[in-house]
Amino acid sequence: MRNNIDIEMDLFYTMLRIRKVEEAIADRYKEQKMRTPVHLSIGQESVAAVVGRQLYHEDYCVSTHRAHAHYLAKGGSLQAMISEIYGKVTGCCRGRGGSMHLIDTAVGFMGSTAIVGNTIPIGVGLGLSLKLAGHGKVSCIFLGDGAVEEGVFYESLNIAVLKKLPVLFVCENNRYSVYSPFSKRQPAERKIYEIAKAMGATIYHGDGYDVLASHDVARCAIASIREGGGPCFLEFETYRWREHCGPNYDNDLGYRTENEFLSWKARDPLEVFRVYLVGKCRVSKQVIKKMEEDVDQEIEVAFELAETAPFPKPIEAVTGEYKSTEANLNCSTYKGELTT
Fold first, then answer.
1. Which of 109, 280, 291, 321 could bridge to 104 as Cys pair (CB 3.0-4.6 Å)?
2. Cβ atoms within 10 A of the Cβ of 320, count?
3. Are residues 85 and 208 in the same domain?
4. Same domain for 126 and 182?
5. In the predicted structure, residue 294 carries a pLDDT above the cut 50
6. Quick one: pLDDT band at residue 188, thresholds 50, 70, 90?
């Protein structure tokens, strides 16, 4: 068992790394070299960090269009992710997927997609495969509050409960689906976690900005799943700071108030946890500074490699769907010349 301070430093490092990566993406996006929409998790890093720390390398994970934080927290390669966002052959999908379609089976990250709720049944199917294999592994499904308005959410949760599958549903409730607040999309007084409870899942609802409390919940939930307790549904209240899609702030659009934004930003879990580590845990500021410098250097290298890496060859546009290149080319309906 690792000491609490080791665990807490891990959590801080993961949150810090995600924050700095996302901010670097936002800062460089104006250069027009990332030819893909980006959905940033700035402000939401704590949920990915606490869940990711409890997942094993062999566990599975699926995500949403806002996937960067989940991918990194699951152990995905930063260099491969940045290269993927740049559309380069060194990306985790060899430049095919971009920001919203990250897949890296080497670390159990089995996919993200732009379609709301689309990966939920995939995650449940992965959970079924894990149960059949019987190795005590977990399939983790990240979803947003908007996904509970998709029919596939109910179908998937139902089968997970019915078959007692080892599935963790993690709902990041950031209060908005694009520009529509939850109160405009659901009846008054409706609670997402109560829906999951009514369907038979073990549930938890809490403050995603409380890092240690959220970590304890994730730890207990995943332990229960590993022991055969069936699916758990965790709903964490959180908040995205930037626009739904893109690198900018968008409080000027009027769908949320500046005061609301500032009230959440004042509770920034990264900064609150930094103060906690330096104050209560007596971690030196020099240690934190060195950690920040190391992360900055890692990010700089990742962007340098992404910018200098080659784009995929045109032939790769019609490869990858089948087991082999030859099979794919034989079955392709593309009749033009394939430049190699």
1. 109
2. 13
3. yes
4. yes
5. yes
6. confident
